[in-house]
Design brief:
The protein is α/β, with parallel strands linked by helices and 199 residues long. Helices cover 49% and strands 15% of the residues.
Amino acid sequence: MNAFFAETLRNLRADRGLSQRDLANQVYVTRSTIARWENGSRLPDASMIARLASCLGVNVSVLLSAAAESDGSPNVIMVDDRKVILTGGLPVLEEVMPSATVVGFTRPSEAVEYAKANRVDLAFLDIEMGNTSGLDLCRALLDINPRTNVVFLTAYAEYSLDAWNTGASGFMVKPITPEGVREQFGRLRYPLSGGVVND
């Protein structure tokens, strides 16, 4: 349950005098999606959190921090510069880890800022992201929190040797699948809290 985020979103919406339908229309989702966010059963991704923050007139860090305070559940991030990969991958992570807070980023710099403000337990990172390498992002995340588990996602298996030299826990060739994600849990350097994985 993402209770703290749900309460924060409800209060911000009420302060603005918006109904669930009003907010849904502004961020281009259904009213039932807003309801799920406000009852704590689902959590929006990072780009949607930014859109919500803009509509509600608050700094995006307010909602990102609220999303991280989700009853002690693990924080999981996915970083890929292609939105289509996040769109396909985030639901897979939520399916496999229903009690985790799952947030996606298209910019490595945003992931670093999030990691500075929130404990990241598990990070799925693309390796090739424009000017920034996922290998460098891995090192930055581990500098912030050495107990962050990092799993690299790439379409190029030949990167695997470079990936192991970063302190990462695992390596997956795209596309991301529930089976592939579950397979990584046995390899994590720092196991996630019990019950997070949906078999």
